[in-house]
Amino acid sequence: MIDKSFFGDSKRVTLSELATICGFTKVGDGDFQISGVATLNYAGADELSFFANKKYINDLKNTKAGAVIVTEANLKDLPENVVGLVCANVMMGYAKVLDVLYPAEEHLHHICATAKIHETAKIGTDCYIGDYSFIGENVEIGDNVFIGRNVVIENDCEIGSGGCIRNNVVISYSIIGKDVKINSGAIIGESGFGILPTGSGMVYVKQIGRVVIGDRVRIGANTTIDRGSIDDTIIGNDTVIDNLVQLGHNVHVGERSILVAQVGIAGSSKIGNDVVLAGQVGVSGHIEIGDGVIAAAKSGIASSVEPGKVVGGIPALDAGLWKRQVAFLKTSVTRKKQSQ
């Protein structure tokens, strides 16, 4: 159930209107004004649901929803009198629906009295800067940027237009592109792990690079991206980085890549375009992961991976070999137990 105290009432549109806006094929004679969205097992007769995972096929067959977003293959599984909204990709369709029914609210366009902004900073038009935020010397912020509470943007940083920087973010030594979203608690541009152990203690190697982030990048809550030691740490356009991700100094991530929660990438490694690193993947330093690589959750990648490969395991191997190893180990353990 969607809590209206947080997300408000949904926009009132009819099923037919929604189908036209989102490009669905409407299958069924019914039409009604949609009151909201809900999961298959909770949706009522005036609500919309969706079916995107075969695990919930029984919920689909028994749903009380007024309409369900489905692929053409699952129309046969809809209960009688439930309208089908057919599209090729259900989750993409559902995303469109949410944008229609729960449109993003326009952010405020003022600077709070408790924000501290250096006189040399340049702030674009239609920006919002929240309470107790700090903007340092020579910072440049583009137009229509939202900056939440307690944000720190250190000297000389640049933030492109259309950005959204949530509460308690700290940014230093960074050049950030347009339409970038950085969620609460992220730290961008801190020093990397430049430590040299010696017999008499630790020697710290000063980190004198930057972080350069492209356009339309998404960075999750409490993620940390270290600045380069000499070369820059670089994040390409349209890349999505989940919560609690750690990127070391000099890491390069290409365009349209996805780094899921708790991924850790050691210094100077290069990640290509369209790469997917699933949850808790660890990447050693100074290696290259080619374009289009997919790494299964908890993989430990210790050496470079050729473009297009699917890998898994610790150390990460070709996915087919990894699965055979897992099956062999499972069979061996079962046989050993049976022989005891």
Could you explain how this protein is built, in words?
With 340 residues, the chain is of the alpha/beta class. The chain has 2 domains: 4-101, Udp-n-acetylmuramoylalanyl-d-glutamate--2,6- Diaminopimelate Ligase, Chain: A, domain 1, CATH 3.40.1390.10; 169-320, UDP N-Acetylglucosamine Acyltransferase, domain 1 (3 Solenoid). Helix content is 15%, strand content 27%. The chain has an 11-stranded mixed beta sheet, covered by helices on one side. It has a 10-stranded parallel beta sheet with strand order 6-9-12-15-18-23-26-29-32-35, with no helix packed on it. The mean pLDDT is 94.
At a glance:
The protein has 5 helices and 37 strands. The protein is α/β, with parallel strands linked by helices and 340 residues long.
What key attributes describe this structure?
ten-stranded parallel β-sheet, alpha/beta, UDP N-Acetylglucosamine Acyltransferase, domain 1, 37 strands, 340 residues, eleven-stranded mixed β-sheet
Shape category: flat
Structural class determined from secondary elements: alpha/beta
The CATH architecture of the largest domain can be named as 3 Solenoid
The name of the CATH superfamily of the largest domain reads Hexapeptide repeat proteins
Helix content: 10-25%
**Could you name the ranges where pLDDT drops below 50 across 5 or more consecutive residues?**
none
Using the CA coordinates, give the radius of gyration.
Answer: 25 Å
**Strand order within the widest sheet?**
8-11-14-17-22-25-28-31-34-36-37
First CA to last CA: what distance? Answer: 52 Å
How large is the count of helical segments? 5
Strand content: 25-35%
Give the number of domains. 2
What's the mean pLDDT score? 94
CATH class of the largest domain: Mainly Beta
Query: What's the count of strands?
Result: 37
Largest sheet: 11 strands, mixed
Using the coordinates shown, work out and report the CATH topology of the largest domain.
UDP N-Acetylglucosamine Acyltransferase, domain 1
